[in-house]
Request: fold
Amino acid sequence: MAENTPSWWKTGTCYQIWPASYKDSNDDGIGDIPGVISTLDYIKELGIDIIWLSPMYDSPQKDYGYDISDYQAIYPPFGTMDDMDELIKQTHARGMRLILDLVINHTSDQHKWFQESKQSRTNPKAEWYIWRDARMVNGERHPPNNWRAIFGGSAWEWVEERQQYYLHIFAKEQPDLNWELEEVRLAIYKEAIEFWLDRGVDGFRVDTCNLYSKDVSFPNADVVLLEEQYQPAFKHFENGPRMHEWLQEKRRLCLSKYGDILMVGECPGSDRETVLSYVSAARNELSCVLDFDVVDLGTNRTSGGKKHHSYRHQLPEFKLALAKTQDLIRTTDAWGTVFLENHDQGRSISRFATDTPQYREAASKMLALCICALTGTLFVYQGQEIGMYNHSADWTIDDMRDIDSINAYNDVKHRYGDDPVWNKKAMRGIATVGRDNARLPVQWSGEAPNAGFTPSPDAKPWIRVHDDYKNVNVADQLGRKDSPLRFWQRMLKVRSQYRDLMILGDFELHDLYEQDTFTFIKKPKGAGAGAATGQELLVVCNFSERENPVDVPARLRDRKKELLVSSLGEEAAGKYLRPWEGRVYLFEEK
Ligand code: NOJ
Reply:
């Protein structure tokens, strides 16, 4: 049966803000916390309950804030600690909650802990990071094993002072903390977690939360990239043997003091059983996770997929990826999330629907309808609500800022030289799945040349503004009833209104193998397979530019049917779905 009072973090919709690209208040070309505060009414109006602020901590910005040099200080261009306190206060004053990014698998190499650790093999923090001796082959020094860092190259970096390598799963400026040491874990709990919960934040999005525990025998990874020295090693550093012990310890020693907070873990590369082991309510390690099945479609991530090898998935794969979480929630005591975008992904309409001018807005509204009807905590990423889409493949590498995209480009260049066709291929991959797609300034208005991202048009944004800001921007969409933004506002209301079916209900996939449409049913929780009692929803989404029939399951055909929402307007909704149209029907007993 539906729960009577589900936690706030189950029924709430979360809006992710990536501060550098959200809103600049002082014309330095970089978004900031006062900029966020100035838009809180906009966010509330959208129908948001929770804000997730991506890292705003002090950082050299090698990985744009995911390389933290001080957990208790703010990156100066983003503002001050007073600004953060004000943000917490103002968010709460509007009845919303605020969660922060918790990046504790690694720090920046500029963090004082690492600066000390690298000095010698005997200093008090000598073991706070993961240090290993070189492997000598024919008198030559090599890294301890063949692991490839997620951003490319070896996962080990040499340090002269210690005559040792340290491990970095991401960039070399992001050394991995040694979670095996209790002292390290206790310092993390206190400095990175309790400090912020004491200041009033409501929880965390936990960065790469399944990477803390590694296979400490550090075996070589299997060779899958035949021509390369360093190999993807995910299975040796994801979901390692001590993960549960540490997550339970964190809950016991630290989080349990703070009541019902949200801990939503980023959980790449994890199958259903692994996810369940983290989020089962009985274990209470994490509230829910952001797993990668949907956003990894077409990327071959775990086999070291190169961006220029990314491809368009088939619609049934998309359905199955979403169904993984839906089925987990339906069949276990676990909770889950729904999302199509974040700061690490290409834009959803470009990847999962279409960004061709004729259908772009329709596609954006159809995707909104689709995910608003799914069970779990819904996450919306800045700009998704206006249908921001990927940048053109004609942009050049000089327009890119993301280390991952720049390394991917250089990797192609390293192997194929200046060949323009290879370079173009590299840029096409980046334009499809590159992270800068999500990091272009939010388009607040059609004002040239910065789309209202900076107060004055003379300021220079830190990253290029999307070419199409005149057609895709907040100001225009607020003024148009049929805009994606207005539709998002409406759908988030419908989602709350039909909470027991949309947010908390059971999902049943109706048309797995259909290549054009995605049809599913939402029923009251626990209704079981087959005929359900009371109200049910039928959600039909046309993922094509062809007309398509509405496929009503036989058992619903003699029930009373009402068209609740059409993403293209109920009035003109005929027998067939229009191109890229989504609909929600309500079925009841006659
Ligand atoms: C996952 C974050 O989402 C991504 O942006 C970052 O680069 C890595 N973790 C490393 O922190």
Observations:
- DSSP finds 17 helices and 22 strands in the chain.
